[in-house]
Design brief:
GO terms for molecular function: deoxyribodipyrimidine photo-lyase activity; DNA binding; FAD binding. By secondary structure, the protein is α/β, with parallel strands linked by helices. The protein is built from 21 helices and five strands. The chain binds flavin-adenine dinucleotide.
Length: 492
Amino acid sequence: ARALVWMRRDLRTDDHAALHHALKAARQVWCVFVFDRDILDPLPRADRRVEFIRDSLVGVDAELRALAVSHGVEGAGLIVLHGWPKQAIPELAARLQVQAVYASHDDEPAAQARDAQVRGRLAEAGVMLHTVKDHVVFERSEVLTMSGGAFSVFTPYKNAWLKRCEPYFLSAWPVAKHAGALAPKPENEPGVPTLEDIGFQRTNLHQLRLPSGPAGAEELLTDFLERIDRYGETRDFPAVKGPSYLSTHLRFGTVSVRRLARLAMDRKQASPPAAPDAPRGGADVWLSELIWRDFYHQVLHHHPRVVQQAFKPEYDRIRWEHGKHADDLFAAWCEGRTGYPLVDAAMLQLAQTGYMHNRLRMVVASFLTKDLGLDWRRGEAWFALHLNDFDLAANNGGWQWAASSGCDAQPYFRIFNPVNQSEKFDPQGRFIKRYLPQLAALPDKLIHAPWLARPVDLLAANIELGKHYPLPVVDHAVAREKTLARYAVVKG
Ligand code: FAD
């Protein structure tokens, strides 16, 4: 039998369920990635994610080649197409005369629609599309409440997740053992294109600390494992190297989430807390973040309406600001010109690197919804365009959490004070100064709210507010009252 593995957000060869199943079932196996024009065509021509994927494919191609060579097969490698999967996959399946196509589940609504089309077209030619879980540890309805419903609160979900998580669920799907079935790539099938070939330009990706491909994930993971025990204490401080920075790799599957969860679980068991009331170890806290990721994926699966609507329907009664002034406020937020240094530095981090620290995502999302009074969907869309790690389930979950409309969200009356957040999580303004060097000469205490500085301090720091740095676009105390009034409709 012949089979094709269609890679999408599983760009690796290690611990790969679809590849494992294909290699076990078929005598000849090829792997393909399609640069999907439905996704790519609307994007700006410079997009770090497209470059990250392209570079990662180079790594996957090399891994496939090496795996095949170790079994004496020359000339294997990744086939890379640029087009519409609904055409490209059935056509390739016909050219290679495969009986089956294997792929990993993708539960985003657009991906589901695409896969349904591909499945239908393949079926017309008698080819099966087999899809398997890969992206999360538990998906869909694998973790349910005692009464068989979907969880909508995180902590009980997490407890049920941990209870269900026997070693089997974290064990790897081996590939190397069966790699002798990898078949040489036909000469006329294209390999990894250049960015220019698919109509894109280079970005600053290579200047960032985001090495791509499975090898890049390995590098970041090795570095993180040296720090994981301190994750709990460091993860909230954007100026500190606390988190793993693995989100983009998790998004594109250049690392296996099962492996990460296994590593965290092993580390957690190796270093239990010294006393019952001692703070949780870093690996334990980090494992919870991976479980949040599964949590939001199952929310999207059970409630796909969250893509457009509030999880809690009454929150769609809120009347967000709109019109010219709202548009100006939105532009100030996007461009990092709100006059609140921590918010602005965070938005500049996003623009310049495609990454934003988790604490800052919460701060800027709260600021957009509860200080500017703007619909969370506007912020969600901006993040979707700019985040390297953009993931529909996690992004929607994060935005609805901040807007209080979501599953297990922040209560609506809890409104982050952007100045307090800044004092608490960037006390010396080290993060702020990295992105707003014009504020560098302000003393630590004044950097969080420059408009409160005395003229003499501003003069000493060489800052003219309104010229070198904006005055605040809103007054937090006033905005807070407006927000409480705006959200009052959810009580009725
Ligand atoms: P680490 O702290 O090292 O965490 C490890 C991994 O756990 C992350 O890589 C991520 O896969 C997962 N994770 C961590 N926190 C969360 C969370 N709250 N929800 C779901 N998964 C989590 N994460 C995305 O991957 N894509 C998004 O588009 C995204 N949008 C967000 C939007 C908002 C408004 C908020 C508040 C959070 C969002 N997050 C998103 C979650 C979180 O901010 C990022 O996953 C994290 O900052 C990525 O950095 P890291 O890999 O260093 O994380």
